[in-house]
Amino acid sequence: MNLKISFSAGILAAGLFFGGGWLPAESSYVASGKTQHSVSNSVTLQFNGKAVQLQGLLMEGNTWIPIAFLRDNLKLPFHYNEQSKTYSIGQGYQTLNVSIYEGGITSYVNDYFLWEQQAKNINGRIYIPFQWVKNYLGYDGEWISSTKVLNVVKSKENELTISTEGYDKDNNQVSIHIDYPKLSGSGNLEAEKAMNEILKKDAKLFHDSIDKRLNELGAVEEGNMPYEFKGSYLVTYNQNGVLSLVTEQYEYLGGAHGMNIRKGYIFSLKDGKLLSLGDLLGENKDYLKLLNKKLSGKLNALPGYFGGFKGLGDQPDFYLQPGGLRFFFQLYEYTPYAAGFPEFTIGFNELLPKGSSPFQAFK
User: Domain Copper amine oxidase-like N-terminal, which positions (predicted)?
Assistant: First the structure.
């Protein structure tokens, strides 16, 4: 990961003495910034129908699970870096990194910053929203509300290999780290070629724009931070013959903060075609009118909303998540920079007739 966070190692992520040896916070504990929580909000966790010792919590309308569950029960690769105070769970593009620093906790999947929520230190243990495990790490959950039981199972993902290609450059003038996905292993070489060409082309456009910007900017003045450019991606859905991901391009050229731009992709694995809203929601001829109404209401409810939303354009920003579509708007598009990317999930059950599937044509 390429994180630029200053922190005081002496007071963060303190380890616990256990069994005569010093461990980095039991590989899932930290001692600073503890939050107490009532056991009445506890959730019984299961893996493949079998109860485990660790428990989750109900908070803010969501289920949260300890990261130790990913290690001990899901058996995901787990590593703690004492120097950076970072927990790394999973592998490849499904790696979650949770970093503890003086101001709090930051979380990334595949070096893509998770803006919407952050991990929590509760009673000395690190918890994450189960939604991250479902959306990004390849698992699903069966929720039994009457008994507050969450049964975690492996998702049925597409037969597809996703590896990372990239470009890196570091010196006293500039830091460049661009990652983009390369797809293989589906058995459909033509579809893979079509998708890879799109993803590589967009990464190259970003890289070429960096060269142009650097030529325009000239050398960094002595004492200033180097220019920084970063490209990352996050796989958000890989089931039912469809692949969805979102990329983020970041640049810092001096000043108070950098700027980020996002782009969503939804591909059909049958032919490598980029899918539109109409491809997914065609069963509802009024889907656009319905979406505009819902998104307008959500934007109007945001603090600091600038106004001006008239409806989705010809190329709206969105991607897939389990159960629905995730719409987002760029920084400064309708809200202040400090508000981040406004994002709204709208379920397929709100958009399509009962019994219909957005994926029927792609399986």
Answer: 47-150
Query: From the CB of residue 267, how many other CB atoms can be counted at a distance below 10 Å?
Result: 23
How many of the other CB atoms lie within 10 Å of CB of 254? 13
Work out the number of other CB atoms within 10 angstroms of the CB of residue 151. Answer: 17
- The answer to whether the CB of 324 falls within 8 A of the CB of 294 is no
SS3 303: coil
For 239, the 3-state DSSP assignment is strand
* Contacts of residue 55, Cβ cutoff 8 Å, sequence gap at least 6: 42, 43, 44, 45, 66
Closest-CA residue to 196 (of 245, 137, 135, 248): 245
Q: Write the pLDDT tens digit of every residue in 145-190.
A: 999 999 999 999 999 999 999 999 999 999 999 999 999 999 999 9
Task: For residue 205, count other CB atoms closer than 10 A to its CB.
Answer: 11
Element (H, E) at 349: helix 348-351
What's the pTM? 0.87
DSSP state of 142: E
**N residues, the chain:** 363
Q: Which two tokens stand for residue 30?
A: 């930290």
Worst-scoring range by mean pLDDT, 206-215, 216-225, 318-327? 216-225
**Domains parsed from the chain with CATH numbers:** 9-154 (3.30.457.10), 156-275 (3.30.565.40), 279-363 (3.90.640)
Which residue, chain included where needed, has tokens 């058995």?
187
| Residue 213 three-state SS | helix
The continuous run of DSSP H or E covering 209 comes out as helix 189-217
What are the CA-CA distances from residue 209 to residues 167, 229, 254 (Å)?
A: 14, 10, 17
